[in-house]
Amino acid sequence: MHSVDYEILALRYALESFKLFIIGKADFTIRTDCLAIVRYFTKMKNEKKRSAINRWHNVVNFIQIRGFKPSFEHVQGKHNKIADTLSRKQDLP
């Protein structure tokens, strides 16, 4: 699997895990350091494209079926220290 595929899986898992907090929200922002996700969803929103034959199909359907209307924002890795800390294995004394 490509690293972007793992980012996509993480996005879907996060949406599923926090759905109780975001159901009914008109808009919310997903902040990610994965520029590919931000570019894809921004392009999809601007061009009104719905492609059923791409690797994003599963997440797109997940978002649409649940009525989520997120916006996406890119956060550079150096400014995303909390997420990096949570996703990296650290040696404990």
TrEMBL record:
Keyword tags: Endonuclease, Hydrolase, Nuclease, Nucleotidyltransferase, RNA-directed DNA polymerase, Transferase
InterPro entries, A to Z: RNaseH-like_sf, RNaseH_sf, RT_RNaseH
Keyword presence, Hydrolase: yes
GO molecular function: endonuclease activity; hydrolase activity; nucleic acid binding; RNA-directed DNA polymerase activity
Signal peptide location: none
Keyword 4Fe-4S: no
Gene3D superfamilies found in the cross-reference section: Ribonuclease H-like superfamily/Ribonuclease H
Coiled coil feature spans: none
A Pfam family annotated for this UniProt entry: RT_RNaseH
Protein name: Reverse transcriptase RNase H-like domain-containing protein
